[in-house]
Design brief:
Helices cover 69% and strands 0% of the residues. It is mainly alpha-helical. The termini are far apart.
């Protein structure tokens, strides 16, 4: 998605090369660190789902220990 947005900025800057705000936003876009998510979610934050899965796994492991 970031590559698509960068192409839009580049196309805009070709015709509006004096647009300092667009240039600053393009630079900000290119130097921002990529967030790598460990899921199929393309857009949005799945941190809540990962946290729920973690707590569910901990709860289940505690239940297994109590059974012994």
């Amino acid at each position: 998605m970031r590559n698509r947005i960068a192409l839009v900025y580049i196309a805009h800057l070709k015709t509006h090369y004096h647009d300092k705000l667009a240039f600053k936003e393009f630079v900000r876009l290119t130097i921002t660190y990529n967030i790598i998510r460990n899921s199929e979610c393309m857009i949005g934050n799945n941190g809540n789902l990962e946290e729920m899965e973690l707590f569910y796994a901990v709860l289940e492991s505690e239940k297994d220990e109590d059974d012994y």
